[in-house]
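Changelog note: in this version the structure field was regenerated for every chain. One regenerated record is shown below for reference.
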Amino acid sequence: MRLLYQFPTWLQRLYRGVVWRMDASSKVVYLTFDDGPIPECTPEVLDILARYGVKASFFMVGENAERYPELVARVRAEGHTIGNHTYHHMRGHQSCTKTYVADALCGEGVLATKLFRPPHGRMRFSQKKAILAAGYTVYLWDVLTHDYNPRYSVEKILSIVQRYTRNGSIIVMHDSMKSRDRMLKALPLVIEDLQSRGFRLEALNASV
């Protein structure tokens, strides 16, 4: 069951060169959001983060960022970091390396970032090697909330965070229509729980 929410260290070692978890020596965790930005969801996420004084990281789909530059600007202006999530939310395991890397690099101009996360957390080893060679830091995650899954209640999402978050955890949520209702209800509860346990919530950066 743990594999559904948190990949064990031995399995992470098989996929080297990416970051699954940050420094475990301090009580800091990292909220991340994939698949945005979209006007139906991202502004509400930003409002919640501002209310709690929390910084986070947004791994954006390039075509969404290009369509809504005002959201990209707001995310950056409010002190959050931006990551590349490919231009078309491309599935690495279903694409050749040349096509995948070209799609990933297509959004560089609008995103202006060297943080990267592959959609669904999956890409071929050759794709990973090429993305790293392009100067990106590749971030995966330590805690998967499953906020995109309609079978998961808000209470279940919170329980995953409560059970699996530890020092240095990278937590993934989604600012997408698929996740919107569950995520927006769960997010304040997740933040309150983490802060009550003494965790500081920070944004990722390109140097690890």
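Spot check on this record: DSSP finds ten helices and eight strands in the chain. The longest helix spans residues 180-196.
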